[in-house]
Amino acid sequence: MSVPAADPGLAEAEAEAEAGQPRRRGYASYVGFKVLGSIGSFFFMLVVNFFLFRVLPGDPARTLGRGRLSTPAQVEAFNKTYGLGESIPRQFLTFLHNTFTGQLGISVEYHTPVSTLIRHALWPTLLLVGSSTILATLIGVYLGIRGAWRRGGLFDRITTGTSLTLYAMPEWWLGLLLIAALGVGFWFIPGLFPTGGLHSPDVNPNSLHGVLDTMWHLALPVTTLTLAYLADFSLIMRSSLLDELGEDYLQTARAKGLRDIQVRNRHAVRNAMLPTTTIIALNIGFVVGGAITVETVFSIPGLGLLATNAIGVPDFWVLQGTFLVASAGVIVANLFANLIYGWIDPRVRT
Amino acid sequence: MTQTAYAVNAVSARLSARQLTRRRRLAAWKRVAKQFRQRRSGMLGLGILVFFVVVALAAPLLASSSGLDVTKANGPVLGPPSSKYWLGTDDNGRSVLTLLIWGARISLFVGLVATLVSMVIGTVLGLVSGYFAGWVGRVTFRLTEWFLVIPFLPLAIVLASVLGRGLFNIVIVIGVTSWPGTALLIRSQTLSIKERAYIDRARAIGAGRWHQMSKHVLPNVMPMVFANTTLTVAIAILSETTLSFLGLGDPTRTSWGTIIDGAYHAGAITTGCWWFILPPGVCVVLVVLAFTLIGQALEEILNPRLRARR
Amino acid sequence: MTQPLLSLHDLTVTYTTSEGPLPAVRGVDLTVERGQIVGVAGESGCGKSTLASTILRLQPANATVTGEVRFDGRDILTMRWGELRAVRWAGASIVFQGALHSLNPVHRIGAQIGEPIRVHMPELKEGRVRSRVGELLGQVGLDPARAKAYPHQLSGGQKQRVMIAMALACDPELVVADEPTTALDVMVQAQVLTVLTGLVRERGVGMMMISHDLTVLADVCDEITVMYAGRVVEVGPAAQIFAAPLHPYSAALSSAFPRVGDPAARFAPAGLPGDPPLPWDLPGGCTFAPRCPRAAEVCLPAEPELTPYAEGRAAACVRIGEPDDTPVRNEIGANS
Fold first, then answer.
1. Phi/psi at C127 (nearest 5 deg)?
2. Do the bridges between strand A185-186 and strand C231-237 make them parallel or antiparallel, or are there none, so unpaired?
3. pLDDT in tens, C132-187
4. Range list of H helices, B178-217
5. Which residues contact A274 (CB under 8 A, 6 or more apart)?
6. Per-residue pLDDT for B267 more than 90?
7. How do C231-237 and C223-228 pair as beta strands?
8. What whole-number distance in Å separates Cα of residue A77 and Cα of residue B187?
9. Where does the pLDDT of residue A316 fall: very low under 50, low under 70, confident under 90, or very high at 90 and above?
10. Does residue C99 surpass a pLDDT of 70?
11. Strand, helix or coil at B26?
């Protein structure tokens, strides 16, 4: 009894034009496709990394071995390990080999292998970024939803105005203000929070006291990042939900006798989550950038601080290593977001 | 509206196609301007922007450039605002207000020029990836996607470290790292325009690819590009401020970012020198807000999808 | 005498827009009895869809509604919110036009059909709901296993049938079908109409069917109301409206569709020149006059009232029954 009908629909035409392949392939093949894409991105990023450090500067040996190599023998050994002086393609292969075996160079400043430095800096960054992102997502999405649903109302106007202002603010400047206000204290208000660092010097970080101490140290930086992120997220969520408001299926939902909140959450928000996920995924670079600057301002010993400290030296191995890790992190986060999207949009899945 | 249509039709018999197109485009822009004037947020943004542009252009009139010279500074070190120095002095004894006024030039300049670079790259690659259906289009699209994934700040830091500090370099760094967003937008616009009937008609009467792209696709893509540009400038200014704060800006020039960097290193935070820290940040916020409001108002007017929301 | 199932009295819906007030529906009277199928015919923009959504108080926020909408004697427009929600779908339901977008793309169709059941009859067990959904799918000619499908996996005709199944989920007493067959090809159209009218007849529900296609309505409905520019211009039994229309507009609608077997109609399908008037630019007097082939001086001063002409028939035209003299078209019908 089924009659094949040609559904028009620009969306389908767009998807066809974009993917160049049939849409209904199942989730497994979608996952496979996205993973392949991520591997491609990763490889491209390695090429860019290589290009930046070996090809751009005039004499890589000078740039990378700065301040450490004095004798010709040292120069020779250095060149051998990192493949300098050979043809570019061979250099690239050596570079790849070194990267995958964790040989990311030796820091000029700390005289330690970069991989060790990165390993120690990873946890503080994850702690900071992780908690900020989770908080910002929960709060920002809620603010965006409520604002969009009663568009133009007082809540919406206040939230949107505040979000726009926060979004226009460099997040590290906000951090500086918070330090000045709450860390140092101003007027008659004393400083309530530490002005930097992750741990107090005489506290064991692994004890309960240490954990609380760490939380106290993270209070201001997490607040800063959360405010910066949630401004972005709430604007995105609001915009996506506003796009859904004119859709016909919402009228159907109301006609069925659903409560307003049910129409909002079950129907409008559920659909608005799709473009929101996509756009937030595109903004992950912003998340990373924020982490770098906030760590710097608050002296949190994470990857961001590592990178910015390396600028002044300039400690190229560290810069290269942190760039690698940051980009890899973004690629993984992007992949994760894509997989989530593929899961919640049935048009992709089935 | 019928009357205008009649008038245009009556006159069209005597006007060439080009003149007709120009008239219609002018009428369209006038309509956009009218709708823009009705939006309070956009007008507010425009007002703020005009103010800062005037300040930047009139810098030599407002504050002598010798005020930037460290060797000539004779004010108190980190002095609070006074009748002589309205916004106090920095750690070298220079007037913060002078720094702000001259800083406006660099901040705005870098923002605008970097955006120009980014828009040119983005528009070209967006058009190419949207218009050409074959492997050319696909490869440029993949390239754009890959580039998009690389996070901005780490790349900018690396690029700036390798290239060295300088005004030109900063413009390049920001321009080269922010084009993917524009490219994607232009690509999707090009894709939807490509489907439209008048492209087929143009092809049917023998219009070549170049003609199609420049006379049909590009003019219809431009409105959205324009709205997107203003938003890109906002991000470019934020980027320049951040890079300058991290010490990657041009050391010989003052921008709002370098002012805050100076304040940070002079310990203005811990000593409570709010006049050094607060004003430059406020200026950045105002200018970025201005561009964002203008861009959002334009987007609402020019994007048919958003227009339906009102 | 029992109450009519649905009774619209002097219903007026005006949108408030930046260009001024926009009258979409202007003083419409309409009744639907139990077991009756009433058709509402007219071109796009005549206010039919606004009418449909107003029946369940679904009109947009910028719409001002006056008049009465009585469902089973109760006034929908002044009902309390809780009572209204109970009436929605369980009392009266709507089969929306354009099923392409009236179904939520991210929910399975089984869930969407079952949703009103769960809302209005929360005491029903899950298994019972599921079997009811399967029942409904079967009644519209779809495989119950398709409950797991998403809307994008169905064809246009299948989606429309899902809309019908959904509309019947809570056993409503009134079904409003807004353009149920538009955008469907003829074969599917016939199937959908058969399903719809069959189910309606079996259960004795009342139905209001809205369409611009008079042939569909003439085929299926007991009575037809013809609307133009937000007002009712003719009411009467379906067959008579189609075969012997009183109002010139109904005549135009009716003759716009060629009749099979009539050789003259094949070569001269009578279209109506011009467009319906823009709602904010309604001409004074009879709104149809600018396009009417029988317009005359007498049509200009005031908008004609709906006057009865025969048993169960009424029309809003002042020139019915007058001899067919040469129409004075030059001054009136100029802007077509």
1. -60, -40
2. unpaired
3. 999 999 888 889 999 999 999 988 888 888 998 999 899 999 999 988 887 777 88
4. 179-194, 197-204, 209-211
5. A240, A341, A344, A345, C106
6. no
7. antiparallel
8. 49
9. confident
10. no
11. helix
Q: Which of A252, A265, A340, A344 to mutate to test the interface with C (most CBs of C within 10 A)?
A: A252
DSSP for residue C2: P
What's the pLDDT score for residue B86?
A: 82
Percentages (nearest 5) of helix, strand, coil residues in chain C? 35, 25, 40
Q: Specify which residues A190 forms β-bridges with.
A: A185
For A71-113, the DSSP string reads: SHHHHHHHHHHHTTTS-HHHHHHHHHHHHHTT---B-TTT-SB
Cα–Cα dist C166/A153, whole Å: 34
Looking at residue B198, its amino acid is Y
Other Cβ atoms closer than 10 A to A68: 13
Question: For residues C253 and C215, what is the distance between their CA atoms, to the nearest angstrom?
Answer: 9
User: Which residue matches tokens 């056993």?
Assistant: C171
Closest approach of A155 to chain B, Cα-based (Å):
17
Of the listed ranges A78-92, A157-171, A227-241, A319-333, the least confidently predicted one is A78-92
User: How many CB pairs lie under 8 A apart between chains A and C?
Assistant: 94
Please determine, for residue A2, whether its predicted confidence score (pLDDT) is greater than 60. Answer: no
Find the mean pLDDT for residues C112-117: 94
- DSSP track, C62-131: TEEEEEEEEETTEEGGG--HHHHHHHBTTTEEEE-S-HHHHS-TTS-HHHHHHHHHHHH-TTS-HHHHHH
CB C259 within 8 A of CB C265: yes
pTM: 0.85
Taking any CB pair shorter than 8 Å as contact, residues of chain A touching chain C are: 1-5, 7, 9, 247-249, 251-259, 262, 267, 270-271, 274, 344-347, 350
Higher per-residue confidence, B300 vs B306: B300
Task: Write the pLDDT tens digit of every residue in B56-106.
Answer: 998 888 877 777 777 777 777 887 888 778 888 888 888 888 889 999 999
* Each residue's pLDDT tens digit, A247-297: 899 999 999 999 999 999 999 999 999 999 988 888 888 899 999 999 999
Q: For position C182, what pLDDT does the model report?
A: 76
* Residue C121, beta-bridge partner list: none
Q: Which residue stretches of A245-283 are H helix?
A: 248-255, 260-262, 270-282
The pairing of beta strand C6-17 with beta strand C20-32 = antiparallel
At residue B198, the pLDDT reads 66
CB B179 within 8 A of CB B115: no
Do C77 and C264 contact (CB within 8 A), yes or no?
Answer: no
Residue A230, both tokens: 């949630």
Q: Residue B111 and residue B257: Cα distance in Å, rounded?
A: 12
Closest partner residue to A285 among B151, B188, B293, by Cβ?
Answer: B151
Q: Do B149 and A45 touch (CB under 8 A)?
A: yes
Q: Is B281 on the interface with A (CB under 8 A)?
A: yes
pLDDT interval class at B306 (50, 70, 90):
low
- Residue C272 tokens read as 């109506």
Predicted pLDDT at A155: 95
Chains in contact with C via at least 3 Cβ–Cβ pairs below 8 Å: A
Question: Where do the H-state alpha helices sit in B14-95?
Answer: 17-37, 40-57, 59-62
Q: What is the ipTM of this complex?
A: 0.85
**B126 contacts in chain A (CB < 8 Å):** none
How many angstroms separate the CA of residue B256 from the nearest CA in chain A?
11
Q: Please tell me which of the candidates A164, A297, A326 has its beta carbon nearest to residue B292.
A: A164
The pLDDT value recorded for residue C318 is 79
Do residue A267 and residue C184 have CB atoms under 8 angstroms apart?
Answer: no
Q: Rounded distance, CA A195 to CA A184, Å?
A: 7
A4-18, B68-82, C95-109, C305-319: lowest mean pLDDT where?
A: A4-18
